[in-house]
Write a structure and sequence with these properties.
- The chain has five helices and no strands.
- With 113 residues, the chain is mainly alpha-helical.
- It has one domain.
Length: 113
């Protein structure tokens, strides 16, 4: 198995750190990466830029939102590599999957702040 380089992620003006976290995260152990992502999302919620409420208005912890975010990315990058023999991973410089995950997160959780 060949070693993969971290995906190069373009910083989005809306949340530049989120894209940076994702870009470095897949190259390291999930534990510290997940903690960093959760802490970042929690800080954004504390700052009032994100509001993690479920569809029925219940508050969600940043850890649940971090799992949702990672699920969007892993569902398209990680799992197909494990279960499909014909899967061809995208070019490491293609940021479309992560860009879409960030856009969906912002659409769902961004506040007016």
């Amino acid at each position: 198995m060949t070693e993969r380089k971290p995906v190069a992620i373009r910083a989005r003006p809306e949340m530049p750190e989120l894209a940076d976290i994702v870009g470095t995260g897949f190259a390291i152990d999930r534990g510290p990466f997940f903690d960093r992502l959760r802490d970042y999302l929690d800080a954004e919620a504390q700052a009032g830029t994100l509001d993690f409420r479920s569809a029925d208005g219940q508050e969600q912890p940043a850890s649940a939102v971090a799992e949702q975010f990672l699920g969007m990315i892993c569902g398209q990058l990680l799992w197909p590599q494990l279960v499909r023999t014909d899967f061809v991973p995208p070019d490491p410089t293609d940021t479309a999957i992560v860009d879409e995950a960030v856009a969906l997160m912002l659409t769902r959780y961004r506040t007016g702040s």
